[in-house]
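Anyone opening a protein record will find just a pair of labelled lines. A complete record is shown below as an example.
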Amino acid sequence: MSCHDNLQFEKALDFFTDDAEVEVRSSGVMKGRENYSKIFLGTLARRKERHDGHLVGQPVLTIDGDTARGHWIVYMFFSVPTIEWIQGRHDCEYVKVNGEWKFSKLKFARTLASKPELYP
């Protein structure tokens, strides 16, 4: 998914089912495209002036027919206004829709950070 890297936040929403549940840190569970789009279009899209980088790796996935579960480790790096880093974890559920895998559930939690106020 390179949409986020290219600041294509609207297009990134297509990787989720319409009734997906998304929870990012203390946002609470946002169910349905109208609600979870607030994170992508309201929060993340506003940060495009920052010089950020992120890396997602170490996937652990279990596939069962047209559904799957998994988790990923996330590292985020920020250089403006100061150098900071955050480590977190994506816990995900997926469903195959018309031959394409989509997120049906995504939860992001911070697990470590360079400054105490950034964690959790």
